[in-house]
Amino acid sequence: MKKDTRLIHAGRSKNYTGNVVNPPVVRASTIVFDTFAELKHATQQRGNRVPFYGRRGTETHFALQEAICELEGGSGCALYPCGAAAVSGALLAFLKSGDHLLMVDSAYEPTRALCDKLLAGLGIETTYYDPQIGAAVAGLIKPNTRVIFLESPGSLTFEMQDIPAITAVARQHNIVTILDNTWASPILCRPFELGVDVSVQSATKYIVGHSDVMLGTASANEQHWPQLREHSYLMGYCASADDAYTALRGLRTLSVRLKQHEQSALKVANWLAQRPEVASVLHPALPSHPGYSIFQRDFSGSNGLFSFVLKQGSQQQVEAFIEGMAHFKMGFSWGGYESLITATMKVQNLRTATTWPYSGPLIRLHIGLEDVEDLLADLEAAFSRFNQAG
Ligand SMILES: *Cc1c(COP(=O)(O)O)cnc(C)c1O
């Protein structure tokens, strides 16, 4: 089955949908049983998508979990109230006091904050590593290193990681690898084929796709699923049936949406690369990107999210650039149908293991589903305001 066809079928087992196209929204706390035999069966099978108690999920959740597994290639999938909970849930499933974690230096900012604040307080030590380190990550491994965490590309600065090189080293040392796979969504990268043990998604982004639900997923391979599932259950992580339903609905159009996001984003990226104000466009699907060959090897496409760095620009100029925009709204998150823009004045403040090579401000764009000509006109006007404010 080809990828787009798999996306249409994923999770739509008759066990979950009955005779309608989509699985119904099954909201539940208590599941009731008529006989002891039924109760016993449900108790034994409660980890295997058999209804047992609401926190363990209903048919709606099972359909989404199964769909994510089919798309990403994992053995099991846990749901979380948001992507940040999936990141913390995956990390805490495999780390305990006294352990050492290798965290990519380009990680999503709240992931860094989790390591520096919460994990440090639990006695879990973090070493940040260069996203482009590849197999040399072996040199950072300590006897107590239990997890290597990856995010590729970095969702602000877009460095590509050599995932198979890092997972091969991790396997040799019995270290668990966790990948924040949100940028790829479940369809642009097959993390388990690259040797990853646990793949995390902020479903809030492209899976839901309409900026109206917070949801997270973590899937694991066969070896690591029992521990992830058990930990997730003990921590009481769960998501609402309504949100699971909305995510499933988003999933069906993921591929067509991504194709449009990708096409428009590449057009904008190439346009920006010609602008005299721009020092660099950070988009891994551009042949000029240092991670382009890895991108070509491991990913089947790109999306609407990328950044560019200005040669220079004051706070005032950046404000002039962003504040008058007609279509790009200023705000966090991404993956919805709308275009978004944010600015980071000093990327180096978010780095400890690497030196950020640019001095100008970084602007991150999410290219939405508007007509790309309108977006280009919006950016053209933004550069005029930027230059006038200089
Ligand atoms: C948004 C995001 C998260 C966190 O997801 P939420 O659903 O907002 O909690 C984690 N990782 C990456 C790469 C993200 O972009």
Concise overview:
This protein has helices spanning 3-9, 14-17, 36-44, 59-72, 83-94, 109-121, 163-172, 225-234, 241-252, 254-273, 292-298, 315-323, 372-388, and strands spanning 76-80, 100-104, 125-129, 145-151, 176-180, 198-202, 216-220, 278-282, 305-310, 329-330, 340-344, 362-366. It has 390 residues and is of the alpha/beta class.
Question: Keyphrases for this structure?
Answer:
12 strands, binds pyridoxal-5'-phosphate, 2 domains, Aspartate Aminotransferase, domain 1, alpha/beta, 390 residues, single chain, Cys/Met-Metab_PyrdxlP-dep_enz, Aspartate Aminotransferase, domain 2, cysteine-S-conjugate beta-lyase activity, seven-stranded mixed beta sheet, EC 4.4.1.8, five-stranded mixed beta sheet
- Give the count of structural domains: 2
CATH superfamily membership of the largest domain, which one? Type I PLP-dependent aspartate aminotransferase-like (Major domain)
Report Rg.
22 Å
Count of helix runs: 13
Order of helices and strands: HHHHEHEHEEHEEEHHHEHEHEEEH
- Give the averaged pLDDT, no decimals: 97
What form results from the Cα inertia axes?
globular
Strands in their spatial order, largest beta sheet: 1-7-6-5-4-2-3
Number of strands: 12
Percent helix: 25-40%
InterPro entries: Cys/Met-Metab_PyrdxlP-dep_enz, Cys_b_lyase_bac, Cys_met_metab_PP, PyrdxlP-dep_Trfase, PyrdxlP-dep_Trfase_major, PyrdxlP-dep_Trfase_small
Organism: Rheinheimera lutimaris
EC number: 4.4.1.8
Catalytic activity: L,L-cystathionine + H2O = L-homocysteine + pyruvate + NH4(+); an S-substituted L-cysteine + H2O = a thiol + pyruvate + NH4(+)
